[in-house]
Design brief:
about 20% helix; 4 helices; alpha+beta; globular; about 20% strand; eight-stranded mixed beta sheet
Length: about 190
């Protein structure tokens, strides 16, 4: 046997994950594509992708973790470490201390059935008084609370605004594209 062939066989045998890992199933590929649509082009190649239940769909080597959109709320997003901790606190209801800047990308914008209240992070759907907003492509910025002073607090601002002002989950929304059609406001029966 020639040495180059022997070396190739040894390398392939020593790295079975590289040589034998099947591609993700079509459903997983669709979830990965949805999640990565939230990231700017330079983040996509190295981002880790997780499904909403925490299942890792694709390991990455970069600083961002992307996930597809949850049904009826927000949209797909890519989070750095401060944002990952922030989302953990938000979903558990625990206050989060923001002590440094954090970046989250939502470059695909909110899903048409998504969006969020600008007033109460726990509101599940649009109402007449919760300033529900379906945002287009945007970047979300975590910053220590004193840095939020003086920024607008309503989504009708021309430019960035503070979402969830007055709560432990306040952060800056920075629209970078057109805002889509808004969801209808639900009315009590």
């Amino acid at each position: 046997m020639h040495r180059p062939c022997l070396v190739a066989i040894i390398v392939l045998a020593a790295t079975p994950a590289l040589a034998q890992t099947p591609p993700p199933a079509p459903a997983a590929q669709a979830r990965i594509a949805e999640a990565l649509a939230a990231a700017p082009a330079q983040v996509r190649p190295t981002a880790t992708v997780v499904d909403l239940d925490g299942t890792v769909l694709r390991e990455g080597t970069g600083a961002f973790t992307c996930m597809p959109a949850p049904d009826g709320f927000g949209g797909a997003m890519c989070l750095d470490a401060p944002w990952t901790a922030f989302i953990g606190g938000l979903t558990s209801g625990a206050p989060v201390e923001v002590d440094r800047l954090g970046i989250a990308y939502m470059m695909a914008g909110d899903s048409p059935t998504g969006g969020a209240s600008n007033i109460d992070p726990a509101d599940p759907m649009p109402t007449a008084d919760n300033q529900w907003i379906v945002e287009g492509p945007h970047v979300m910025i975590l910053a220590p609370e004193p840095m939020l002073a003086g920024l607008p607090t309503t989504p009708v601002a021309d430019g960035p605004y503070v979402m969830w002002p007055g709560t432990p989950y306040a952060h800056v929304m920075l629209p970078v594209g057109a805002r889509p059609e808004q969801r209808a406001i639900s009315t009590p029966n």
